[in-house]
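Supplementary Methods, section 5.1.

A reviewer requested that the exact input to the structure prediction be made available. We therefore reproduce it here, unchanged from the version used in the analyses.
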Amino acid sequence: MNLNGDGVEADSNIGYNATFGYQKPMGGAGAYWGMEFGLGSRGFKADEMKCIAHNIQYSPFTFGWKIGVADNLSIDPHLGVFASYDYTSKMKESGELAQKRLDNLSFPSMYRVDHEECLNNGGQECK
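The structure derived from this sequence is encoded token-by-token as follows.
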């Protein structure tokens, strides 16, 4: 899946989503309410950069309807409110941009801006 818009072109990164929930039936027609807790990840790939973030998901209430398809198989559309918190992430870069960033780290007395201009300890611009 490509994510495009506002000058950004990126591909999605494969992630996971594992959810554990509680469902309490409401009557005998298949309706239920419940709550869920889950762990997941999301990310993107753009040019020579990859990013992945891991998150915690919590849904305090969910309403759904179980629709039986076979004896041991149901379709389960549900609707609810959830919160998600990213607790860690990882970014990898390769190629020319990554090398420029490494070059910037090799001169600890300088701060580089836009990979062209730099400020030395005296605050003077150089190129």
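The chain is about 10% helix and 65% strand. These observations are discussed further in the main text.
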